[in-house]
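User: My advisor asked me to double-check a structure prediction for Aromatic compound dioxygenase before group meeting. I don't want to rely on an old file, so could you generate it fresh from this sequence?
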Amino acid sequence: MEGHGDGKAVSNGIPPPSFQLPYPDSPEVITANVLKLTELAKDSRKQFLIKNLLVHLHQFINETSLTTEEWMDAIQFLTRVGQKCTDIRQEFILLSDVLGASALVDAINNPPVQGGTESSVLGPFFTEDAPDVENGDSIASEGKGDYMYVEGRVLSTDGTPISNAVIETWETDADGFYDTQYATREKPDCRGRVRSDKDGWFGYRAVVPVAYPIPGDGPVGELLLGIGRHNMRPNHLHMMIEAPGFRKLTTAWYPEGDGFLESDAVFGVKKSLVVKLEDVNDEAEARKRGFPRGSSFKLLKRDIILVPQKQSDETFRKNAEAAAKNAAA
Ligand code: BEZ
Ligand code: FE
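Assistant: Sure, here is a fresh prediction for Aromatic compound dioxygenase from the sequence you gave:
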């Protein structure tokens, strides 16, 4: 263990600062000293981030006159969040999701650009093992839910079709579970990887997704119960699209009519991502798409508009400059 062994306990090697600090005898001086010490950070971005974090943390403690019990409760809560994490369960990301932090970071890093499809939260249910699926094939095994066909084109913001874009897609079955939530999972289901064809078209059979609760059996679940919030996500179909030269897009389509659209537990729904599922009751159409004879199905038809990387970087940079100016004003 650090500090133990043959020799004497040693410091981390950084000497006391060259500047003088007053003794931290009052709340004001504690805050001032902590902020002053951030000047020692060599990396300017790190210094900027930690200083801002400390300003807001100290402000929060001061403004709320936080009690010792409340601070200990917070520490114990965060401890439980850490203890709940495993290789396949990330309770900290879930916490970030329900606090709206994931959605906010995502919104800032994927600013809307000239008609580009907007982003949505990734969530914890993406896996690397989705099978490659040919256009027109199914991502779901029979019996997993009501039939849905998903189709559209992948286009650039100037309308040019993008061929060979890789589209990862995943969704719940009709019971509201991802395949990874079944202890008996033997292979991926309700997920797949399709590629757009030479004209940008893609299409695949899927099932109609349903609303489902985010994991509620841990400290994040307790938190939501404690503050009177539900833990539901409205029904949605996830997509992650990659094509060289374009900003990678993580998004989801949200079929309209779901009672949780406006109060999504993780703030992932944007108006432009709400879609109308068309009812198709035409046997010929169903058969053309590979559904069994006599089937009706829902059609989710939406193009995906990718933003050229350069255009996305430029928008991010401009927004960051504006935010910094705003903060300084
Ligand atoms: C999801 O949509 O899969 C999801 C997103 C955030 C938290 C939990 C689930
Ligand atoms: Fe999801």
